[in-house]
Amino acid sequence: MLSGILTALLRADFTVQLRNGRALALALLPPLVLLYAQFAGKRGVQLGDPLFRVATSITFGIASIAILGYTATVARDREKGVFQRLRVSPAPTWTIMVSRLAVQLVSMLVMTVVVLLAAAAVEKVSLDPAAYLLTLLTVIFSSAVFLGVGQALVGLIKSTDTINAVGRLVYLPLFGLGLFAHSEIFGTTFETISRWSPAGAVSTLLGGAMHPAAWNAETWEALLASVLYSAVFAGVGIRWFQWSTR
Questions:
Q1: Structure confidence by residue, pLDDT tens digits, 104-117
Q2: Cα–Cα 20 to 30 A to 2, which of 51, 65, 91, 120?
Q3: What are the DSSP E strand ranges found in the chain?
Q4: Residue 29: what are its φ and ψ, rounded to 5°?
């Protein structure tokens, strides 16, 4: 019974996601554009080594899907009463959210594969087979950070328009810090702050996964920071989430 309910929810959510052209574009275009920009620019080398620049592009894609796409979808469905109708169905409330989050996670994994393929084909940045698998595994931890941020936003804010506006305000500086996590362009203090920001921790974690031989104490610390960020943001989002705008 429970597995049938979850399967039905997943099928419905995946169908909606595939039919949403804006969501698909949001998932794939931003990280590919950033990937090209980081390698095409003359000062791209100042942003870190090639693997870190690929990791930054994947981080950008994860943040776009979670903070801009996921929040907008949840806020819109809540405003339209979709969640209220689902809550009076036989589906437990946790299955509703698990289905939504699973769809976002799959989108992030697909985006990661596309970016890695583009990096190998266009920028000649390829990984060992084990590194590809480890990268996909760390994407799961990385996605939890930004989905936690998204969940916190929809938990604290009811209005769809306000969530869209605040999401953009949060998204730009949040990712901007991660972009300079391994660069001293603005000095060592700014680099340290950037490195331990949510996006910086994710970029460091993904960069370590892409080169397992270089996995070190800093990578473990980035993993721990990602887990802590995920727990805090998700805790806020779950605690204050409301199923309707009333």
A1: 999 899 999 999 99
A2: 65
A3: none
A4: -70, -50
